[in-house]
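Hey all, sorry for the wall of text incoming. These are the two entities for the joint prediction.
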Amino acid sequence: MRHRSTRSLTVLALLATLLAPALAQAQQLTGEYKIGVLEPLTGPLAGEGKRHLEGYEIVRDMINERGGVMGKKLVFAVADAPDPTAAASEATRLITREGVRIITGTFSSRLCGAASEAAARHNVIYWETSCVDPRFTRRGLRTVFRTEIDATGFGWYNIEFIAKHLAPRFGKKPAELKIAFLSEDSSYGQGVTESARQRAKQEFGMQEVAVEYYSFTAINDFTPIIVKFKQLNPDVVHHIGYTNDAPLFWRQAREQNFLFKALVHAGATGYGSPDFGKALGADANGVFALLEPGPGFRIEALRPDGQKLEREFREAVRKRTGSYPLGGHQLAGGGLWILKLVLDRARSDELDKFRAAALSLDLPVGSLINGWGVKFADNGQNANERVQHYMLQWQDGVLVTVWPEEFTTYRAKWIPLGPWDARR
Amino acid sequence: MRIVNFAHGEFLMLGMYLAFWSFTLWGVDPYALLVASLPGFFLVGLLTYLVVMRGVVRASHNVQIFTTVGLSILLQNAALVLWTGDFRVLRPWHSSVVLRLGATAFNLSQVVAFGIAVALTLALFAFTKWTHTGRVMRATAQDREAATLMGIDTERVYRLTFAIGIACVGAAGVLVSPLYAAYPTAGLQFVLLAYVVVVLGGLGDMVGALVGSLIVALVEVVGSYFVGTAWKEVLYFLLFIAVLIFRPAGLFGQRGAELIGA
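and here's what came out:
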């Protein structure tokens, strides 16, 4: 009798042990925690904004399957921000009508400044995951945080790649390189271009032959710029563009038979957008874009916890979209996961506690989605060196990871680019 | 008609999408589609007139502006819902053919688009100048009341004029589709420029619009090359302001025409 009761108790204890986490999780997710998500879902940036939102939704579901945030189910109040005015007014609406204490977004550098100013006026936390305007974290606002690199980081990486990877393969010293800068004129383009110009000139003594800015909403012909560039004969064209202007430049450069040794871009839009490959197919061959990792990425180069997370993220993206994670997914998803870590650590969205938790988070490169790490500075900017970035190249319709070489199985091709018809 | 249609760019966008889907789904070349797109967009124009424009033709300019801006937003967002915000590019064989003339290079699609646009403009010019219907249209544009007194059915003229306008812009959308990506706000890229061209040439003057377009293109290209791309809009808007100050009717417009029928 005694023996039987002992056995029953053991079985009960075993069952309780097995079911405890599931029961605890079910209990934890009874409440909801709402954050605002602000993205350009209409207007010229709608394509990228929707992809970004998809990234958020994928990782939100991953988070909720793993216990939510602060023990609650994470839910979104989504708002559309096609332009800076709408970004500011929708941020205010999310705060005053939806009652959110944290807003995340906003894909574009055109939008993040206005939206975060509106949030700061209400002392609401603004968690930016992709705009790169350097001014975003330089306004003395205690409420802003950015998980993505800033434009100075983009510029830094691009020049690093040009000076240390491209120049030797051209058989030139960095100081012998002639570089032409072309960029759309929003704070994204200006931020990346100006930081790249500064490093190219001051650190490597590269020869800047041209700097041209244009409005991406109005440009419909690059011929005058291309004719001018042809005469200046640059080795490298550093072009920061959006999704409508990048294919136009590339197509017209081909028509005008403008030959240069490499074109380097940075960001998930323009040459970094899947639309560029769709538009040009194999004609896109050879273009470089600084991004989050693409095909060829060696997950085993990450830390063990980072490998697990990255695999789960990729699987979730594949299930939802049937494809490899795209730049928009990676920026939004990677950033949202870090927000979860901070909220779980702070157990509160009260600004001081949240800030303390964010600033104390210290994870090395290779720990998180995209192989990122985290170390926020006092101004809310994640350290550029922790936001590991990768150079990708269009190769036969696929944007593959080519640099740093230790992170990838692919190698950069067509260096220098050579004649247009020979890039096959 | 004396109506500035702010949704004109959106009909261009619809033309671009029509070309994209016809090419992608059925392999129809944009130039073959052009033949069908003209009557197709003519019908779209008729329908738009009957449903939207008829009620505001005699209303104040403010009402007309709000109506056409509203129509523009409706069409942009309908495109966004139906076809997403992705950039759609079609690549028929002629879009990658380059014609070289000395040191200059032209894309074949660009040359064909230019040729057909000039031909359409001249045809429209001949139609309004030498046909009875064309004369009726011009008479109605010059003075709506007088035309009515002469027994002209102005309602019918407006309907026809609006439909012809939409047929032309729809055809333009098909023509530029091999050159530019189709996306819901693609029309915005062209509509302001088109407005500058029309005012510069003279409102209602077909040859003026043709010459105006060449002048704006010249200012854009020469300005971009010698001064810088960032300055190109500054330059053509300076020209636009100068024309408005010194020749309010445009370069070829009849003096006072901008006021008649207002």
